[in-house]
Queue: 2 jobs
Job 1
Amino acid sequence: MNKVLLLSSVLVITPQAVQASSNHDVADSVIAQQRTALAENTQGKGFGPQSPRDIDNLAGNNTRYFGKAPEYSQMNLCNVHFHRNAEHKGGEFNVYAGNGDGKGNNTG
């Protein structure tokens, strides 16, 4: 019985330990290469790697018209979520979190 419990514990803990050990910051050079590739990919397209928009600004040159949304009771559930370490206007996310793993995890 004790061997089964020990084996079960090891099987449960191992994936978590592997994930924790692989969560490290990449070098600044990796981030620089990624930023260069993003800038080259968006060159001349009218937008940058990130195109921030101030949704509180009512002025702009976008001529698209969006109709009113239906009543909430007529709509399906949607995926409303927040991004940890995201850049937002509110100022809650103004501490640099580091380079992360180079794949978007724990960055900002």
Note: Helices lie at 2-21, 28-42.
Job 2
Amino acid sequence: MSKSNGRKAKPYEYVGRIVDVRTAEDCIRATRKYTEGIVSQRRTQHPIQGDEFPSVVFMKYYEVYPDTELSWDMPAGTAIRWLAGSIECLDVLFWYDYRANRASVEVKNGITAVKKMTKGIPGFGAALKTIKDGASFSTERVCPDLTP
């Protein structure tokens, strides 16, 4: 998605505690408006504990369709539009770092995507507000006002 001046929209990231970010992920998972993408893990180096130390940073990727519920019994026209890629899709990344009890939600398509998800996914806006209010980290760049 791009802005009117031709530049790409800047991703918005909400950083907070794992339990708060997990609430935002659960809001998406409670609907039928997403597909789950690749789940990866990134091992970190621990000079004292060694390479076998069990801490891992997890990433989950979702393609969210805020206006469309996906199911096996959806109308044929909607299914064809979804397969053709003509239904709006928003990219959302969840990063979990269990060592530091820190996690983040990154919405790739900018503030307009955040507002669409707030409108289309029940509870998502409240979950982002909880992340913003409870964050003990610097989030000045990333937390826009979501009031309608």
Note: Residues 12-134 form one domain.
